[in-house]
Amino acid sequence: MIFILIALALVFDFLNGFHDSSNVVATPISSGAIPPRRALMMAAVAHFIGPFLFGVAVATTIGDGLLVEDAITTTALIAGLVGAIAWNLITWYFGLPSSSSHALIGGLVGAALVESGIEAIQLDGLTKIVIALLLSPILGLAIGYGVMFVTLLASRGATPKVNTFFRKIQYGTMIGLALSHGTNDAQKTMGVITLGLVTAGVLDTFEVPLWVVFLCSIAIALGTALGGWRLIRTLGGKIFRIRPVHAFASQLAGGAVIMGAALAGAPVSTTQVMSTAIIGVGAAERANKVRWTVLRDLLVAWMLTIPAAALMAGAAMWLILALS
Question: Can you say how many angstroms the Cα of residue 64 is from the centroid of all Cα atoms in its chain?
Answer without folding.
Answer: 19
